[in-house]
Amino acid sequence: MNNSRVLDKLRRGEPALCVKTGFNEPGIVELIGTFGFDCIWLCQEHMWANPQTLASQVLAARATGTDAMVRIDKSGPSSAFRPLEMGAQGLMVPHIRSVEEAKTWIDAMRFPPLGNRGLDGVNADTDWGSCTLAEYLKHASKETFLLLQLEDPVAFQHLGAIADLDGFDVIFVGIGDLSLRLGCPGDFQNEELWEIVEHVAKVAIQHGKTPGIPGISPAFTKRVLDLGYRFITSGADLRFIRQGYTQLQEDFGELGFTFAGAKSACEGRAD
C-alpha cells in the first residue's frame, strides 16, 4: 500500500503541489507522474470518466508513486468511497456550504469511529487483499486525505465550526467560483476575496487543518505561502497544450507559414 506523498509533505510543514489533468487517459496520468509532482487531480465534477477509466487513471498514478486525488461529483456516498477503493489517496468535495454537509462527506469517506464508510477489503487500496484488516484500517486512516472545498460565501459563515470537525485534512478555497459569487469573476486581487483567503488561512491553522488554494501564478503562490497555505494546485494539461500550439503557430508564422485554424468559441460574442 502506497503512503501519501501529500500527507508526508504536509506533516513536515512543507508545501505539496497537485497538478490537474483534463483528459480521461491513463497514459497521460502516468506521463504526468514521471515529473515527480506530489499529486494528480482527477476531476469528476466538471468531467466524467466511467468507473473503469477512472480506476485505470488512479492505478497509473500509483504506478509512479504519485498520489491520485479525485474531486467527486457528490452523487452519493459511493462517489466518495469507490475512488478510495480504486486506490486514490485523496478526495476533494466541492461546494461545501454547511457543517452538516461537511459531516456527510467525512462520514462517507472515513471508517468508524470517525465515519460510517462500508468495508470491502479486496481492492487496489488493500493491495488486492494482501494485507490484514488491521493494517488496512490503519493505513486508510493515516494515508488518505480529504479536502473540503469552500467556494460559496455562505460557507465562510460556518468556517470555524467546519474547521473544528475531525476526519478531514485541508480547507480548500475555490477562488474561481468564489470570485463569481462575489461579483468579481476572475479578479483574484479583489479586496473582499483576499479578506476571505487570509481569514481561511488563520482559522484553518488554528484548528490544525491545512489551508489549500490554486496557485494561479508564482507571485500569487508566494503570497499565499506566506499566509501559511501548504496545499497548492497548479497546472492544467489542456491549458499547456493550447499554450504550446499557440507558441508553435507564432514561431512558424514568423517563417511565413499560414494557418486555417478555427475561431475561438469566445470570438464574436457580444458582452
Features:
globular; 11 helices; alpha/beta; 271 residues; TIM Barrel; 8-stranded parallel beta barrel
- With helices defined by DSSP (H or I, 4 residues minimum), what is the helix count? 11
Work out the number of β strands.
8
Question: What is the CATH domain class?
Answer: Alpha Beta
Gyration radius over CA: 20 Å
- What summary fits the major beta sheet? 8 strands, parallel, barrel
Structure description:
By secondary structure, this protein is an alpha/beta fold. It has one domain: Phosphoenolpyruvate-binding domains (TIM Barrel). The chain has helices at 5-11, 26-33, 51-63, 78-86, 99-109, 133-142, 159-163, 175-181, 191-206, 218-227, 237-253, and strands at 16-21, 39-43, 67-71, 90-93, 145-150, 170-173, 210-214, 231-236. It has an 8-stranded parallel beta barrel with strand order 1-2-3-4-5-6-7-8, surrounded by 7 helices. Helix 4 (78-86) links the parallel strand 3 and strand 4. Helix 2 (26-33) packs parallel to helix 3 (51-63). The longest helix has 17 residues, at 237-253. It is globular. The termini are far apart. The model has no long low-confidence stretch (mean pLDDT 93).
